[in-house]
Design brief:
The complex is a heterotrimer of chains A (52), B (222) and C (249). With 52 residues, chain A is mainly alpha-helical. Chain A has helices at residues 4-9, 14-51.
Chain lengths: 52, 222, 249
């Protein structure tokens, strides 16, 4: 890889390579945040239940 | 052993009392097979090419339709629990039940297949392989379908869940069976496919009863 | 087999212990994944030279192969956890299986999408009925069936045990399905062998690939541990240890 232009166009295959990476990024980021948020929601709900 | 024989007799008698349950898969088989020429084209060359696959997919789908009734009515009237508590080993009971069920849901498809084959321009010389492949295949499908039926029998609205669970497991059966029928149609030797089906059947007969028994116990505990 | 050899196993099966252990381990795996991904992507997207035949299009391999590998490993994990849950009646094992399945399905989905995007410029079509992709597709159905089944049950504890039976039936089927698809594919020679047809892969391409596989595995471990924590909390919400733990924070 020699230039930013070559990186972005992926030697002409950019239309295939980049969507693949972007979809992978979306799926992986989603899978990373979802359990953390679920945990926090559950802990908050349980703490409220205990306080009551 | 006497308990098993009594069970077989009871199951067969019940099936004759409910002809609707037996007729539905058969009608579905015929209708699906008829739909393909309507959806594709009636040209004999095309039909002959797709006939093995069409017959097999239709048999697979019709077989799955028939699996719902394997345990359902017994579950609803409580006799399934009695079977679990009965004297015979559950695995043996399950195996006999699957076989008698196949006699009324799978075997009719096998018998009908040559006639549908005629309609789809499947060569007459290959009928033997077709029927044999479907006989082995529908037996295996009954075994696999029983797993799905046992897992879903207690669910209120299982809908299409049983076919969805069973179809991926049925892919090898479909591949070996349909390809074997296609090879026979082309005049090639289909022995390998038939042996593979036989191997799957042996594997199924030995392992499936345990899975079904376990699944029934789980379904009935809730 | 002296009892003391198995205490680690039984301790691991205790929900509060596993919950705390998971909470401590997850960040380590998370950071390892982040570093591995950064290093692997730098090596794969920037350093590695373009392929002789496929140009820069081959770089999808750095997502496709790790995803496919993990999709299969995860199914083994689901089946293994299901077996442990059924044989030893260990509820935590079922929690592991239930938590892992959606992750496995995600990786299978990614393997299929990236495989499709790789196939279009290379072989002209968005879908190729070759043995690998077809097997991945069936694996996706196996995952979705597992998830659908255990969610269909009203009682979650029965549901996960039913799912476990399905997973075990499925795992026995996986080699059979794969063999049948390979056999089918070989009968109709039109399809080309897809991934790994190059017998020698250069080091500059291989090292980032191995890095990405390791990074994906760490990522999977981190996500899985957090999902198991959420599962444990949901099952044990009325337990004393949960109350104590919440009071401490």
């Amino acid at each position: 890889m020699t230039s930013l232009h070559e990186f972005l166009t992926m030697g002409g295959y950019g239309a295939y390579v980049w969507p693949a990476y972007i979809i992978a990024a979306v799926v992986m980021v989603a899978n990373a945040i979802v359990p953390g948020r679920r945990l926090r929601r559950m802990r908050a709900a349980l703490q409220r239940k205990d306080a009551a | 052993m006497r308990a098993l024989a009594a069970l077989v007799r009871r199951d067969l008698r019940l099936c004759f009392r409910r002809p609707g349950e037996v007729a539905t898969p058969v009608l579905f088989f015929v209708m699906v097979a008829v739909l393909f020429p309507l959806g594709l084209s009636p040209q004999p060359e095309l039909l002959a090419m797709v006939a093995p696959g069409v017959l097999w997919v239709a048999a697979l789908l019709a077989g799955l339709i028939g699996q719902e009734s394997l345990f359902k009515s017994d579950y609803e009237d409580g006799s399934l629990e009695q079977l679990l508590l009965g004297p015979a080993a559950l695995e043996l009971v399950v195996l006999t039940r699957i076989f008698t069920h196949w006699l009324t849901t799978g075997l009719p498809l096998v018998i009908l297949s040559p006639f549908l084959g005629l309609m789809l321009d499947y060569p007459v010389q290959a009928f033997g392989t077709l029927v044999l492949s479907l006989m082995l295949g529908t037996l295996i499908l009954s075994l696999l379908g029983a797993v799905g039926a046992a897992l879903t029998v207690g669910l209120r609205q299982s809908g299409m869940l049983l076919p969805i669970l069973v179809l991926p497991l049925a892919v090898p059966v479909l591949i070996f069976g349909a390809q074997g029928a296609a090879q026979a149609a082309r005049g090639e030797d289909a022995a390998a496919a038939l042996y593979l089906l036989g191997a799957l059947l042996v594997l199924g007969v030995t392992l499936v009863p345990f899975a079904v028994a376990g699944a029934l116990r789980i379904s009935l505990e809730s | 087999m002296s009892p003391s050899n198995w205490t680690w196993f039984h301790r691991l099966a205790s929900p509060p212990y596993f919950y705390r252990l998971a909470g401590r381990l997850a960040p380590w795996f998370g950071w390892a994944a982040a570093l591995g991904l950064a290093a692997g992507l730098y090596g794969g997207l920037w350093l590695a030279p373009a392929d002789y035949q496929q140009g820069d299009g081959f770089r999808i391999i750095y997502i496709h192969v790790p995803s496919a590998y993990l999709s299969m490993m995860c199914y083994m994990l689901v089946a293994g956890a299901s077996a442990i849950g059924l044989v030893w009646r260990m509820k935590l094992a079922h929690a592991v299986a239930v938590a892992a399945a959606p992750l496995g399905a995600s990786f299978t989905f990614l393997a299929l999408i990236t495989g499709s995007l790789w196939g279009k410029p290379m072989w002209g079509t968005y879908w190729v009925w070759d043995a690998r992709l077809t097997s991945e597709l069936i694996l996706l159905f196996l995952y979705l069936g597992f998830i659908a089944l255990h969610q269909a049950y009203e009682d979650p504890r029965s549901g996960e045990r039913a799912g476990a039976v399905l997973a075990l039936v499925g795992v026995v089927n996986v080699p059979i399905i794969h063999y049948s698809v390979v056999w089918w594919s070989s009968l109709h020679q039109g399809s080309t062998v897809f991934v790994g047809s190059k017998s020698d892969i250069s080091a500059s391409m291989l090292i980032p690939l191995l890095t990405m596989i390791a990074a994906f595995t760490c990522y999977f471990a981190a996500c899985l541990l957090k999902r198991i924590q959420a599962e444990i909390l949901e099952r044990e919400q009325n337990a004393g240890w949960v109350r104590e733990m919440l009071e401490q924070t």
